[in-house]
């Protein structure tokens, strides 16, 4: 499966953005789809994932209550709605797909299909 991520941009603190991750060559329902981010000089970190198996959605504590992950199966697309953005949310955001299990779904090493990053910059 190939993934394309887009929707990043430059916003001010408190603004919202919606990132999209569109899949081709495969169906998102067959995978766990996760969003990860990497800020300059920092390691890639987990943001959120959605697993159709078990109907499970999980968020990192840092984004819980502000970000929402959702899927449109008809469009084969997974979205990340980001509200009340903070300067510390500034990063390159990546979507990824993998056949993970519950214990590995936060770990980027278990995702083997990655989209290109889309940059989110939040100014204070």
The coarse silhouette is: globular
What portion of residues belong to β-strands?
over 45%
As a whole number of angstroms, the C-alpha radius of gyration is 13 Å
Termini gap: 37 Å
Q: N-to-C SSE series?
A: EEEEEEEEEEE
- Proportion of helical residues: under 10%
Could you describe the 3D structure shown?
The chain has 124 residues and is an all-beta fold. It is built from no helices and eleven strands. The chain has strands spanning 2-6, 9-12, 17-24, 32-38, 45-51, 56-59, 67-72, 77-82, 91-98, 113-114, 118-123. Strands 2, 4, 5, 6, 9, 10 and 11 form a seven-stranded mixed sheet that branches. Strands 1-3-8-7 form a four-stranded antiparallel sheet, with no helix packed on it. It starts with a strand and ends with a strand.
List keywords for this structure.
single chain, 124 residues, mainly beta, 7-stranded mixed β-sheet, 4-stranded antiparallel β-sheet, 0% helix, 51% strand
Give a short synopsis of this structure:
The strands form 2 sheets. Strands 2, 4, 5, 6, 9, 10 and 11 form a 7-stranded mixed β-sheet that branches. Strands 1-3-8-7 form a 4-stranded antiparallel β-sheet, with no helix packed on it. The protein is globular and about 40 Å long. Helix content is 0%, strand content 51%.
